[in-house]
Amino acid sequence: MTHGKLLTGNAAAAWGARLADVDYVPAFPITPQTEMIELLAQWAADGTIPARFVTLDSEHSMLTAAGAAAAAGARVFTATSSQGLLYGFEMLYTIAGWRVPLVLVNVSRGLSSPITLEADHNDILAARDSGFLQIHTETCQEVVDTILMAYRLAEDRRVMLPVLVNLDGFTLSFTREPVILPEPEMAAAFLPSYQPDHAFIRGHRPMAQGTAVLGGAAYSYFRYQQHRAQENALQVYQEIAEEFHTCCGRYYGLVEPFQLDDADYVLVMSNAFATKGKVAVQRLRAGGMRIGLLRLRVLRPFPAAAIAAVLEGRKAVAVIDQNLAPGLGGITYQEIAAALYDNPARPALLSIVGGLGGKDISEAEFDAIAEDVKRAAAGARVVGPRLLYTQPEWERMHTLLRIAGKEVEA
């Protein structure tokens, strides 16, 4: 049995933690994550969930408490956003180095300065090398389901690593969508009670973790083990995805293909704006263009083989990054280019940067991208990265900057 609710992305994340029967929720509020924490605090206070809820004094102490509790054998959930993720950044590496499983939700928000409250992905992608696994979501339904899957993945003996689940701020965090919630019995069957083998506090079998090592050889060994665990996670994730499909009827692969069976051209996107990309694909197909979309879902471990298998043999691919590495361009473009580098059937590859700070990607901009991929497929050199902004918006911003006494180059 399942039942439906109309939930925001934040509420969906809270429900994911509730259905996972978490033991401990260390928290610190930050927009646009706060609604999630408020809901969990209310449930803990009124006894709806048995978890202990504790508000810490910063994101750094929040993550420290989360890692310590996970090391002691608790099933831990916590969440942050944007500047908060960066404030606790040191502890991401520490927790992953401890090899303790927990789930951390990041509600993506563009990093200051300037300040914005809406989403892009520089916050979550800054953590891509921390050792945390990363799963990126598109819908509120996917948020609930992914949190349950993330605990299974993190707690698997072949993995034993923390997981970051990402959802877009405002675009998804405060958007209400119909969500089918698994019944608690169904969730418990898929995600049984946590039985930690690694916990520090085991009187009959004491152990040490996160110890100091002298010399690079020992350090290299532990780092290599962490890398192997990430590689293991690719296969483990696929097993969990099949089991979740059997359990709950919804399938989430490492990547999600959309109308790709006969596609000559492909848009690559991630997170909530992929919905806009799908609408653009349907509109362009109605006009006769054989185009599809590949949504990136698991970003760490990076599913290079799965991506290459989908993209090989296409005429042209546009990677639309909702992030910007200044001086380089889009971040995931670089990783997809590396995944395709040795493939003789690799397509022409274009780099597009758009949606920064939650800026809309318009129909006209999707049309321009479609023209670019057709030109690239025909052999034209399309210089990238193309940064998307509408000219009237830029002219207005240029005027504002001039008023503020700052000259800019258009």
Care to describe what's here?
The chain has 14 helices and 15 strands. The protein has two domains: 2-248, Rossmann fold (3-Layer(aba) Sandwich); 259-395, Rossmann fold, CATH 3.40.50.920. The protein has a six-stranded mixed β-sheet, sandwiched between helices. A five-stranded mixed β-sheet has the order 4-5-7-6-12, sandwiched between helices. It has a two-stranded antiparallel sheet with strand order 1-8. It is globular. Helix 11 packs across helix 12 (331-340). The protein is of the alpha/beta class.
Summary of the model, kept short:
The protein has 410 residues and is α/β, with parallel strands linked by helices.
Strand-helix topology:
Elements lengths: L1 E6 L1 H11 L4 E4 L6 H13 L5 E4 L3 H13 L5 E4 L2 H5 L1 H10 L4 E6 L13 H5 L6 E4 L3 H16 L7 E6 L8 E6 L1 H7 L25 H33 L6 E4 L6 E6 L3 H13 L4 E6 L1 E3 L3 H8 L4 E6 L9 H10 L7 E6 L9 H15 L8 E2 L3 H13 L7
Parallel strand pairs: 2-3, 4-5, 5-7, 6-7, 10-11, 10-13, 13-14, 14-15
Antiparallel strand pairs: 1-8, 6-12, 9-11
